[in-house]
């Protein structure tokens, strides 16, 4: 798929299939938008290098809602009810948003240097980390307890029911936690070394991988089905779902951008966010509105799936 013109920060990028990727603003002087999260109809972005979180106020307007201590990287966001949390580096700390521009530390995960992912089961918050490759459970106050599995870096977490899933850089191994122990689910094929992103569609787990930019579906036991490669991309850094349609954010190929899965093993590039911008984060707002954040001066882009 060819782009019919350059994506300018001041306008729209229209593709030949009439899909439109629209500029949705810039988070101050940031370089990266590592993560996005939606609470109700409110979109938030976590950034580098300021270690701040930003709130989207519509149009192209973003409001700085504060820095997480002296951290520089906001790698992940999650929420339980209306309460927003942020995972950061380089001190591996988790933060709670208390309104205005106030963030309160709720503790550090041991001696970890980064919290790469957050997820929750009911009101129980979990954090995936790098140095030890462990997941930590939040036990209140500033207390975090390591629950394993100690598999290199934990890049991604997902939840189905009461089961927690973790994607690693240990040869791309995926594991699940049943509340007491971890069980290996095997490794996606095709030379996968890292599982960087996860999403759930109808209780089925999908994972985005490195180094061949492939997405896989989990079929039970240690069985995985290759759902195809996003062009010649290297990384699938983010995944999102609108209805039953799967989207992927990619990086480090000839066409980094946002991709739509067409079923079986084919993917369509629906747009680039700027010029060859790596897409680190995707989030869905108001059912059909897909937002993408990446490595381009703290910019966020918007795709209306109703136009597809």
Number of strands: 29
Class per helix and strand makeup: mainly beta
What is the count of helical runs? 0
Strand order across the biggest sheet? 1-2-29-28-27
Q: How far do the termini sit from each other?
A: 14 Å
Looking at how many chains there are and whether they match, the oligomeric state comes to single chain
The CATH level-2 architecture is identified as 7 Propeller
Overall spatial form: globular
Work out the count of structural domains.
1
List SSEs in N-to-C order. Answer: EEEEEEEEEEEEEEEEEEEEEEEEEEEEE
Low-confidence stretches: 1-18
Question: Which superfamily, in CATH terms, is the homologous superfamily?
Answer: YVTN repeat-like/Quinoprotein amine dehydrogenase
The CATH topology assignment is Methylamine Dehydrogenase, Chain H
Rg estimate, integer Å:
18 Å
Measured by DSSP, the beta-strand proportion falls in: over 45%
């Amino acid at each position: 798929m060819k782009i019919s013109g350059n994506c300018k920060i001041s306008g729209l990028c229209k593709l030949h299939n009439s899909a439109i990727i629209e500029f949705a603003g810039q988070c101050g002087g940031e370089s990266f938008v590592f993560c996005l999260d939606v609470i109700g109809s409110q979109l938030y972005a976590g950034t580098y290098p300021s270690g701040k979180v930003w709130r989207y106020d519509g149009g192209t307007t973003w409001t700085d809602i504060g820095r997480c201590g002296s951290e520089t990287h906001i790698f992940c966001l999650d929420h339980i009810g209306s309460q927003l949390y942020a995972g950061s580096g380089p001190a591996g700390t988790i933060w709670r948003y208390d309104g205005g521009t106030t963030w309160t530390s709720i503790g550090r995960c041991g001696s970890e240097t980064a919290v790469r992912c957050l997820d929750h089961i009911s009101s129980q918050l979990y954090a995936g980390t790098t140095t030890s490759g462990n997941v930590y459970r939040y036990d209140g106050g500033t207390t975090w307890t390591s629950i394993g599995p100690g598999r290199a870096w934990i890049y991604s977490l997902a939840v189905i029911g009461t089961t927690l899933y973790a994607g690693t850089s240990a040869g791309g191994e995926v594991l699940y936690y049943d509340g007491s122990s971890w069980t290996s689910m095997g490794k996606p094929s095709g030379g996968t070394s890292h599982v960087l992103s996860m999403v759930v569609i109808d209780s089925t787990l999908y994972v985005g991988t490195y180094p061949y930019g492939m997405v896989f579906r989990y079929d039970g036991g240690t069985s995985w089905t290759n759902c195809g490669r996003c062009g010649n991309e290297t990384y699938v850094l983010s995944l999102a779902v609108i209805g039953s349609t799967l989207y992927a954010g990619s990086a480090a190929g000839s066409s980094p951008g946002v991709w739509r899965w067409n079923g079986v093993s084919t993917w369509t590039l629906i747009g680039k966010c700027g010029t060859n911008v790596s897409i680190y984060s995707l989030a869905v707002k108001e059912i059909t509105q897909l937002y993408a954040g990446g490595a381009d001066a703290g910019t966020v882009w918007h795709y209306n799936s109703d136009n597809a």
